[in-house]
Amino acid sequence: METANKTTITVEATVNAPIEKVWEFWIDPKHITQWAFASDDWHAPYADNDPQTGGKFKTTMAAKNGSFSFDFEGVYSKVIEGSYIEYGLGDGREVKISFESLGDTTKVTETFDPETTNPIEMQRGGWQAILDNFKKYTEASV
């Protein structure tokens, strides 16, 4: 039987910043709360992160008007500092993120298992919007 979980979704962005900065902004909760949302009417009021193999993370994503919020959380299965992250979400889906240094820029590639509720394109669009927000925030920060 075919299931949506046999398909993975990939989003990527090239961030105009060196890999050390990109890594720091990706893993530090004080930065995560500044970019981990898909649109300006949302925010991330809380983030906790233990970026090591076996460590846990949790980011609360919430509508600014208070109408809805959820916790995005999981456990790291593999962390290679400065270059690679794998984690599992509570529903069994897996996510892989690579950070590739291109000199003064860094390519970030996320591949994830889709959930079964929303269409693939909607999920790709949401994750790409968050990654684009990360790029915008990281590039704007000195």
Structure description:
The structure is a single chain. The protein is α+β, with helices and mostly antiparallel strands and 142 residues long. The chain has helices spanning 19-27, 29-35, 120-140, and strands spanning 9-15, 42-49, 56-63, 69-80, 84-89, 94-101, 106-112. The chain has a single domain, classed as Alpha-D-Glucose-1,6-Bisphosphate, Chain A, domain 4. It has three helices and seven strands. The protein has a seven-stranded antiparallel sheet. The longest helix is centred in the last third of the chain and has 21 residues, at 120-140. The N and C termini lie far apart (50 Å).
Blueprint of the fold:
Layout: E1 9-15, H1 19-27, H2 29-35, E2 42-49, E3 56-63, E4 69-80, E5 84-89, E6 94-101, E7 106-112, H3 120-140
Might you state the CATH topology name?
Answer: Alpha-D-Glucose-1,6-Bisphosphate, Chain A, domain 4
The outline comes out as globular
Helix percent reads: 25-40%
Beta strand % = 35-45%
Strands side by side in the biggest sheet = 1-7-6-5-4-3-2
CATH architecture: 2-Layer Sandwich
- Any idea of the CATH class? Alpha Beta
Tally of individual helices: 3
What is the H/E string? EHHEEEEEEH
The total number of structural domains is 1
Question: What's the CATH H-level homologous superfamily?
Answer: START domain
Structural class: alpha+beta
How would you describe this structure in keywords?
7 strands, 7-stranded antiparallel β-sheet, alpha+beta, 142 residues, disordered N terminus, Alpha-D-Glucose-1,6-Bisphosphate, Chain A, domain 4, globular, 3 helices, 26% helix, 39% strand, single chain
